Amino acid sequence: MTITVKFFASLRESLNLSSQTLNHEGINTASDAWHKATKGAAMPHNVLIAVNMDYVKDTHKIKDGDEIAFFPPVTGG
Amino acid sequence: MKIELRHQAFDPWLELQHAEIALRDSASGQFGAACIFVGTMRDLNEDVSVKNMFLEHYPEMTQQHLQNIATEAIDKWQLLNLLVIHRVGHIEPNDNIILLAAWSAHRDAAFKACRYLIEELKHRAPFWKKETLSNNSERWVTKNTPS
To answer: How far apart are CA B6 and CA B96, in angstroms?
Structure first.
């Protein structure tokens, strides 16, 4: 009954968090996962969220076993 | 279709030569146009001298989204072949960052597909650039250039 939360790029550095496994209990949405993983840090307005590699909104429902990623705007190419 | 993430420098012209030779076997006589985009690292960004950069990515998601974008382009413009090579890791000025190539029967499809690929990739594929400046300080690139 766990989920995985990952942070990338400048978010990983500023929060000093990369990947962690959390108990799914009490985490209903992606926003809940952010707040539990960061211990209540404010979510940047431009954060991008992916669940199991697909982009979602912060209200996306989280299921057991999900991988949730938070990262800043992408800059490839 | 070939989509690859590369940790080492690559020669886009050699890659194109190999792809073109293979296509002459698999789609002989069918393609009338190829459009190519090559993106290269500059030593200047936002008026500041840049020594090198690190291109971070989210491996599984990056591969998946490159695949999705490529499939969309093939379906939308009936492409005969597509080549996407994108660097990750440590990159020096003059290194090629990306190679996109689209082959089609006619030029309009190839041009449009190539433009679609680079714009969608820049907005959807999870890559992030961290630059090391000439004074050895580091900064994250926070947004794409407008065009």
So the answer is: 11
pTM over 0.90: yes
Give domain B2-11+32-140's CATH number out of 3.90.1170.40, 3.40.1160.10, 3.40.50.12160, 3.40.190.10.
3.90.1170.40
CB spacing of B124 vs A73 below 8 angstroms: no
Residue of A nearest to B40 (CA): A77
One-character DSSP codes across B16-52: HHHHHHHHHHHSTTT--EEEEEEEE--SEETTEEEEE
**Per-residue pLDDT tens digits for A12-36:** 999 999 999 999 999 999 999 999 9
